[in-house]
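Hallway conversation turned thread

IA: we were arguing at lunch whether anyone had actually written out Formate--tetrahydrofolate ligase end to end. Turns out nobody had. So, for the record, here is the sequence (555 residues) and right after it the structure tokens. Reply here if something looks off.
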Amino acid sequence: MSDIEIARAARKLPIGEIGQRLGIEPADLSPYGHDKAKIGAAFLQSLTDLPDGKLILVTAINPTPAGEGKTTTTVGLVDGLNRIGAKAVVCVREPSLGPCFGVKGGAAGGGRAQVVPMEDINLHFTGDFHAITSAHNLLAAMIDNHIYWGNEQDLDLRRIAWRRVVDMNDRALRDMVGALGGVRNGFPRETGFDITVASEVMAILCLARDLADLEERLGQIVIGYRRDKTPVHARDIKAHQAMAVLLKEAIQPNLVQTLENNPAFVHGGPFANIAHGCNSVVATKAALKLADYVVTEAGFGADLGAEKFFDIKCRKAGLRPAAAVIVATVRALKMNGGVARAELGREDVAALVRGAVNLGRHVENVGSFGVPVIVAINHFLSDTDAEIAALKEYTSGLGVEAVLCRHWAEGGAGIEELAQKVKAMADSGKADFQPIYPDDMPLFAKIETVAKQIYRAGSVTADRAVLDQLAQFEAMGYGQLPVCIAKTQYSFSTDPTLLGAPEGHEVHVREVRLSAGAGFIVAITGDIMTMPGLPRKPAAETIRLDEQGFVEGLF
């Protein structure tokens, strides 16, 4: 059965029953049909004085076309924890329509380890992304309207920083000129679109503590600069309160369930290669009050997702992770070792060992944050006993354990061993979490720290304009912010073709952006785009409705 067939055959419980398992009464849920709901703000506020459970991060090696299965493992681990008697909740991000119709075709787990309703989650869900898109573009419209009616804030049209967004991969929108067509349409200027998951509004929603904090952060957005280079904020043109109105439901976490009827919070969705890659703080903190163990993921490989989870989300929200799981597959490691995709089904222990250096680098990096690590080997049918034994021997040499997991085929029953070991690790109290740089380090030094310690770069370069911009950010009072590096997900370097564990490469920062409301500085490197394009054969070509009206092609 395909992922979508498995999801469609799931025996889902009414969402009210899932809520009651966590102590959430029906009156505190706003249902969206029978199988999904939002959790009310008043209930969330009532949780403040409850003790926190333990937070477990699931991350992975760098993604390859061979597949890694990070979300599948995240969901499976929660099913496994509940099977062994632990009270566990999963917290993951909402999928973006861009990759769903582009490369991925869906992002709600897979096989017997999924969150459901899979079709709804992958498509419009509860409308959060639409609300974020609308709030972002409301601000864009108000900026141009402000300029049209006299430009009271004296915005310099050459220094407007706020672009528009749409939740779709559309390379044609990256750069353009707006307001063409004459006087009635405003003042022409260069602008462009980013994808919604790269929006600062998305980051703000995912880092805000509550609705009041959300509104305050929206007001802090820097939309551009005056001719004297002083910043203009969203609050200066009175846009932030209306933006908050559009987001008042979107900030409430979404409650759904796994295939095994365990609670799942699916909320927020910033990409990790161009944003901070974590689900919402509101959902994570609520889950920690409601469960003994909360399993969350961070996007792409640990060089992006885990680093940003630790250095941005945990730092900003005061979270202290108790354990981390790094997901790897034999197939993906062989690809890192030089095996072509068509040949991955053949046993090749030597290539596996060559490619395992990618896993080794991630193990070292995650451990450097003071968080104990275990490796999950996401099993594929083509894996051989010799390959699995070689991988376990390699990780043993690193001082960490690797556990074979069959959750894709068997659900929670196939990941019980990992669940037992992760629970023991989280309960051990061995975690001593620390970000890898202090708040008061200069901004460029923070970028260098991440590039050299996590990516193993030999040098970090930037044009004079970038260095001057960072200096200006510091002069404006933003030097204490963490950095969010936009980089290819496929390599430790900025070159997506350099697999394995490259060292000594150059990381060039070509642009920096201030996300004052979210509370970080974005450093854009290499050829990474904040508006992706569709691939030559997009998944959209095979997504359709069948004769019965069911969606086909999501996976």
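OS: looked through it. The chain has a mean pLDDT of 96.
IA: good, adding that to the notes. Residues 543 and 553 are 4 Å apart (CA to CA).
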